[in-house]
Amino acid sequence: MPWRRLGLVYRPTGHHSLLQTHAALPVAVPLGGDLARVYYSGRDAGNRSSIASLVLRLGEAPRVEEQPSSPLLTPGTGGAFDDSGCSVGCVVPEPAGDRLYYMGWNLGIEVPWRNAIGLALGDARTGRFERFCAGPIMDRDTVDHFSLSYPWVLKLGTADWRMWYGTHLAWGTNRSDMHHAIRAARSPDGIQWTRDAKVVLAPEGEEIAVVRPCVLAAGSAAEMWFTHRADDGPYRLAHADSEDLIHWRRDTIAVLEPDPDGWEAGAIAYASAFLAADRRWLLYNGAGYGKAGFGLAVWEG
Fold it and tell me: How confident is the model over 146-203, as pLDDT tens digits?
């Protein structure tokens, strides 16, 4: 198999009251050489998520070199779109200030939650960010009726920003009634977005959700990694490619089969690929939405 596992590289330590459990949605910012800053989402005792980071040394025996004592982004003020937590989406380097796109949580009554997409500005190398504003940059509207999640953003040109994100297509009384798909949007500045109502990737067959896109692009050609699941099954990792960043062709084979006996506990979720030290790497979670921490694989294809 082209991806070779290097094992569990970070397990939650509970070193801060807001980071008691989980290390979900890992995404890396290369720092040069074999170092990368990895952003992830941890949870407190009340299950609210915050965003934190650490510095990881890549290689055959990956290890954590630095772990800040506090999270960099915590739940918003009461009534804000992220007052129940914030979860990392992606980080985009930008000369005018690096950008962290994230998902904000509100707990619901008739449905478990509603999410919207927020933005923080700062320095990706040092892991310091502050909210762009107290409100979201993308929320429910005439295209996305229920909830938005997991933004992945690329800047392709001076006024050409692209986003792929999760959207709920339906809620229901049972979990099997849920349908979560991936849509796309464009922006001239990375703040004001125009959404495409057409779904990029939708659940197929017995699936109820495709989530957390990660896109790497070289010119107009691109690859996407995403997670999918059926109602009665764990998360699996899948892959799609595109020749124009608009139309996507989904592969029919599994990207990386989960290990049923190890720390993955039979699932692979929330993966993100990145390039560093002249190699391609894959960060990912196992079962439990990142409860065990995150692992690393290296491409050998």
Answer: 999 999 999 999 999 999 999 999 987 776 678 999 999 999 999 999 999 999 999 9
From the candidate CATH numbers 3.30.70.120, 2.40.170.20, 3.40.50.300, 2.115.10.20, the one assigned to the domain spanning 3-299: 2.115.10.20
Q: Taking the model in full, what pTM does it have? A: 0.97
- Burial of 301 by CB count in 10 Å (0-12 exposed, 13-18 middle, 19+ buried)? exposed
Q: By the 8 A CB rule, do 66 and 56 touch?
A: no
Q: Which DSSP string do the residues of 25-42 spell out, in sequence order?
A: EEEEEEEETTEEEEEEEE
* C-alpha–C-alpha distance, residues 281 and 269, integer Å: 15
- The type of residue at 117 is I
* pLDDT tens digits along 251-276: 977 789 999 999 999 999 999 999 99
Number of Cβ within 10 Å of residue 164's Cβ equals: 26
Q: Would you list the DSSP string of 68-86?
A: -SS-SB----TTSTTTTBE
3-state DSSP assignment of residue 175: helix
Domain ranges of the chain: 3-299
d(CA 79, CA 70): 24
Q: Using alpha carbons only, give the angle 248, 273, 218 rounded to the nearest 5 degrees.
A: 55
Listed residue (120, 87, 121, 130) closest to 106, CA to CA: 87
Query: CA gyration radius for the chain?
Result: 18
